[in-house]
Write a structure and sequence with these properties.
Layout (H helix, E strand, L loop, with lengths): L10 E3 L7 E5 L6 H14 L5 E5 L15 H6 L2 E3 L4 E4 H12 L1
Parallel strand pairs: 2-3
Antiparallel strand pairs: 1-5, 2-4, 4-5
Helix pairs in contact: 1-3
């Protein structure tokens, strides 16, 4: 299956479960997932706010538990939810993660 990357900048706020930074990812993607894993590990090693990777392809994924972010939308664009509940996408999300880990 071919994977596509979209680059659109936008932000929204999710009011549910603001306890951690969440990266919504396809854990089977050989391009983006290793990078996301490295960033999450670095955050944990440096004592930064932990990053949780949410696999959007699992059967148990429930969009209602993730601010309405559907599996389809998560696969079309890269999404991160900050610890304050803000949803950021694509380039903004990648920049946020890199700034977070230093």
């Amino acid at each position: 299956m071919q994977r596509l990357c979209a680059v659109r900048l936008s932000r929204q706020v999710c009011t549910r479960d603001k306890s951690s930074i969440k990266v919504y990812a396809d854990t089977g993607c050989r391009i983006s997932y290793p990078e996301v894993q490295t960033i999450a590990e670095r955050a944990n090693q440096t004592g930064k706010h932990p990053i949780e990777i949410v696999d959007v392809l699992t059967r148990s994924y429930n969009s209602e538990l993730h601010g309405g972010l559907t599996r389809k939308d998560a696969m079309l664009e890269f999404h991160v939810r900050t610890e304050s509940g803000e949803i950021i996408k694509n380039v903004d999300a990648i920049l946020f993660l890199y700034k977070h880990v230093g």
